[in-house]
Write a structure and sequence with these properties.
Blueprint: E1 2-3, H1 24-35, H2 41-44, H3 50-62, H4 65-82, H5 86-98, H6 104-113, H7 115-127, H8 130-135, H9 141-148, H10 152-164, E2 168-171, E3 175-178, H11 180-183, H12 194-201, H13 203-209, H14 211-217, H15 221-226, H16 230-236, H17 240-250, H18 255-261, E4 269-273, H19 279-287, E5 292-297, H20 302-312, E6 318-322, E7 335-339, H21 347-361, E8 366-371, E9 373-374, H22 382-393, E10 399-400, H23 401-410, E11 413-421, E12 425-432
Helix pairs in contact: 4-5, 7-10, 7-12, 9-10, 12-13, 12-17, 16-17, 18-19, 19-20
This protein binds S-adenosylmethionine.
Length: 433
C-alpha cells in the first residue's frame, strides 16, 4: 500500500444536499416520508439498537397491503396539494382516473413498460443541457433546438412529454420554465443530479438492455454489453472513472447526516475503505475537527480523491492510501467506514473484505456501514430496485438485516445498531464480536 498526499479547504456550507442538513429528527422525518410509514415514527425513534429494527419490521408487517395502497393514494393526493408540479401531474392523474376500473391493470402495465422511455427522455434533456439553456434564458423550442443542435420539431415533442411528466413548467407558446425537478438537472447547482442521469441513460441503460442474457448466464448485463466488468471498464476507459464517481456523489445525499448520526468523539482516526472521491470522508472530517482521516481505495482512484480532498479538507488532516481491500485494509484506525462497498460483492467476497476490516480495526474499533437494507415485508422501494440494478451492473446485491448480521458474524463482527438515513439508506454499526 502506498501513501499519497494531503491538502486543503473548501467551504462545506456549500456542500450539495443542503436540504438534508438539519436535526437528526428532521432526517428521520424525511425517512418516514420516503418510506410512507405514517405509523412507524415511534419505532424509528432511537433505532440505534438493531433489535428495534426488528420491531420496526414487525410493525411494518402489521400493515396490510390495502393499507399501504391507501396510504400511497393519500400521499399522492397530499403531494398534489403541496407540490408545485401538481398541475402537470394532475393531467397525468386525470388521464388515469378516466380509465374504467377494468383497464387500470392495463394502464399499470403500460406505465411500467414505458418507464424506460421516460427515463431516456429525462436523460436526453440532461445530456443536451436543456435545463442549463432554459436557465440561461432560452425558453422557446426554436432557441433550444438551435442551442442543442437538434431539430425543432423533435425538441418540441420532447419538451411536451417532459412537461407532461412534471419535469418542466410552461408550454411551447408561453415558453418553458424550470421547476424543482429540472433545476436538479442543471449542471451548475448544488446537488445537481445531471451526472447521475448521464450514466443511467448511457452505460447503465445498455447494461439493463442485456437483462435476459444476464439472467440466463448469471453474469452481469454490463459484461454482456461492454465485454468487460464494470470495475475494469472504469479503470481502463478514459473519463469513465470520474463520470462514475460524479454519479455516485449524486447518491450521497445521506452522507450529510452521517456526521451527526455517528458520535466520533471517542475516535481519533477514521479510515474510509473504498472511499471513492472522498465525499463522505470530507464531510466527516469537516464535522469533527479533532479527527484524522485515511482514504483507502484502488490506485486509479487516488488522483480523483486527491483532487476532491485537497479542495475540501485542511492540509495534514488526511492521507490517501491505495491498495486492494481483499489483500489488506490500512491498520491504525479506530473508526472504519464502508459506504456502498458491500453492495458490489457476493457474500464470499464481502466476508473476505470484512475480515480484513476486522483485522485492521483491532479490538476496540468500530465499523460503520452505509447500505440500503431490504425490508423483508416488501415495504422498501429503492433497495429492491437497486438490488436488481447491482446484479446487472456489478454482480452485487442489496441485503436484508439478517443477511448483514450473518456476513458480519462470519467475519468476527457483531451488529451493534442500525439507524435509518434519508433515501432509504441505513447506517449499520458493527464492532468486534
Ligand atoms: C460504489 S463505490 C463507493 C464509493 C464511496 N464509498 C461512496 O459511497 O460514494 C465502491 C468503491 O470501492 C472501490 N473498490 C473497488 N474494489 C476495490 C478494491 N479491491 N480495493 C479497494 N477499493 C476498491 C472502488 O474504487 C469505489 O471507489
Amino acid at each position: 500500500m502506498k501513501a499519497a498526499h494531503a491538502a486543503q479547504g473548501e467551504d462545506l456550507t456549500a456542500e450539495p444536499h443542503a436540504a438534508h442538513e438539519g436535526t437528526r429528527d428532521v432526517d428521520r422525518h424525511a425517512v418516514h416520508e420516503v418510506t410512507r410509514e405514517a405509523d412507524s415514527h415511534a419505532a424509528h425513534e432511537g433505532t440505534r439498537d438493531a433489535d428495534r429494527h426488528t420491531v420496526h419490521e414487525v410493525t411494518r408487517e402489521a400493515d396490510s397491503h390495502a393499507a399501504h395502497e391507501a396510504d400511497a393514494h393519500a400521499a399522492h393526493k397530499a403531494t398534489h396539494k403541496a407540490d408545485p408540479h401538481a398541475a402537470h401531474k394532475a393531467g397525468d392523474q386525470a388521464a388515469r382516473e378516466a380509465d374504467p376500473a377494468d383497464h387500470r391493470a392495463a394502464r399499470e402495465v403500460i406505465d411500467i413498460a414505458t418507464g424506460t422511455w421516460r427515463a431516456q427522455a429525462l436523460y436526453a434533456a440532461a445530456a443536451l443541457r436543456i435545463p442549463d439553456h432554459i436557465a440561461g434564458g432560452a425558453v422557446s423550442c426554436e432557441a433550444l433546438a438551435a442551442l442543442t443542435g437538434t431539430g425543432e420539431d423533435a425538441v418540441r415533442r420532447l419538451m411536451r412529454l417532459l412537461a407532461t411528466m412534471g419535469v418542466f413548467e410552461g408550454t411551447e407558446t408561453a415558453g418553458y420554465r424550470l421547476n424543482a425537478v429540472s433545476t436538479l438537472l442543471r449542471s451548475d447547482v448544488s446537488g445537481s443530479m445531471r451526472d447521475m442521469c448521464l450514466i443511467y441513460g448511457e452505460e447503465f441503460h445498455r447494461a439493463w438492455g442485456a437483462v435476459l442474457p444476464a439472467l440466463r448466464t448469471g453474469g452481469t448485463g454490463f459484461e454482456e454489453a461492454f465485454g468487460s466488468s464494470l470495475g475494469d471498464y472504469l479503470r481502463d476507459t478514459p473519463g469513465a472513472g470520474p463520470k462514475f464517481q460524479r454519479a455516485m456523489s449524486v447518491g450521497s445525499a445521506p452522507f450529510a447526516t452521517v456526521s451527526r448520526a455517528i458520535d466520533f468523539s471517542r475516535h481519533h482516526t477514521v479510515v474510509d475503505v473504498g472511499g471513492g472521491y472522498g465525499t463522505l470522508l470530507s464531510l466527516v472530517l469537516r464535522g469533527n475537527p479533532g479527527l484524522r482521516g485515511v482514504l483507502f481505495d484502488l490506485p486509479h482512484m487516488a488522483p480523483l480523491a486527491h483532487e476532491h480532498l485537497a479542495d475540501a479538507v485542511d492540509p495534514g488532516r488526511y492521507e490517501i492510501v491505495t491498495g486492494d481491500v481483499f489483500e489488506e485494509v490500512p491498520p491504525g484506525g479506530d473508526a472504519y467506514l464502508l459506504s456502498r462497498v458491500l453492495q458490489d460483492w457476493d457474500d464470499a467476497d464481502c466476508v473476505r473484505l470484512l475480515v480484513n476490516c476486522r483485522r485492521a480495526m483491532g479490538s476496540s474499533g468500530r465499523l460503520f456501514i452505509l447500505e440500503r437494507v431490504v425490508a423483508e415485508d416488501r415495504s422498501t422501494a429503492l433497495p429492491v430496485l437497486w438490488d436488481v440494478h447491482l446484479m446487472l451492473i456489478a454482480g452485487g446485491r442489496e441485503r436484508t438485516l439478517p443477511e448483514y448480521r450473518s456476513l458480519l458474524a462470519r467475519a468476527g463482527l457483531r451488529l451493534e445498531s442500525l439507524e435509518p438515513l434519508p433515501l432509504e439508506t441505513s447506517l449499520l454499526v458493527a464492532s468486534p464480536a
